[in-house]
Amino acid sequence: MIGGNIQYLRKSRNMTQETLAEQLGVSRQTVAKWESGESAPDLEMAEKLSQVLDASLDELVHAPFERMPEGEKRQKGKHIFGVVTVGEKGQIVIPVQARRVFDMKPGDQWMVLGDEDRGLALVNAHFFLKAAEVFARDKE
User: Which of 108, 119, 9 is nearest to 66 (CA)?
Assistant: First the structure.
């Protein structure tokens, strides 16, 4: 799985194997072997990869990045960011791609909404509060 994730993250950042290899201080062949699953980076190199590819170690190792089949187009605004794991205290790590798309930064506030049949959703707290204000005014 890590090989596919390395390849997906590299390509999504418009990097060649050679460019990634240069930034990591390894050969292009090494990157090719990681991506094909012939070998895997050690822990120290995985940390460097996560920094260069701007992804957490968990995302690099575990996140099965979804790929659209050739010829299919994703609906505008619709995304599959991968799988997250709930930690012992209920924490989740939002995938880096999702943080980029939604411009999430440390300290931002997000409202957690839930539907027992459909699951959880995150909504920007500022948007949610503004919408609630408009709704309250319309009720008056």
Answer: 9
